[in-house]
Amino acid sequence: MRHAIMLALIVGLLATPAAVLAGSCSSSCRTTSCDTQETSQYGKAMQTTGACPVTGARSMLPTSAPEPSKAETPVPSLIQPHEGLINTPGLLALIQARAPMVLLDARSAKWDDGKRIPGAKSLTADASLKEIRKHIKSQDQLIVTYCSGLTCPASKNLSDRLKKLGYKNVIEYPEGIKGWMEAGHPVEHARK
Questions:
Q1: pTM confidence score
Q2: Domain range holding 147?
Q3: In degrees rounded to 5, what are phi and psi of residue 51?
């Protein structure tokens, strides 16, 4: 029940590239369908919040969503088993709720400044299977990858590799450590 409540709070903060982020989304949200409307649950999340979950761009769509009937008890799923994105408020909500997840910093040694989002482990896209399995115990586990920021490809590369290996609940935090720190959130220093 606790997880269902937590998920209900953050479902509007999750998005997928296939979801419609209608309105004036910037290209940094990594979608190709920003000018169309889709009726998936992620499209509805956009309609409900009125803002792009990745960039915060405002939609031109109405921001009210229909109330579910009393007979319905919506239980949102965390993410569909395909590509996904999460924004800073969504990641913060997961961390504060102590959601069972693996948070992975995908930066290579060259770009790693030693700062981590609290609870994150370092794992690059070229890590061995043994190293991946050391950090991720189940293929159904929620995994969030991040790197330096919006222009860094490392978190997407790691996400893509994990999906190819059969991990089902992989989402990317494209804002990265830069977006996390710019939002004023705390960081940890990696142990050497």
A1: 0.60
A2: 100-189
A3: -140, 150
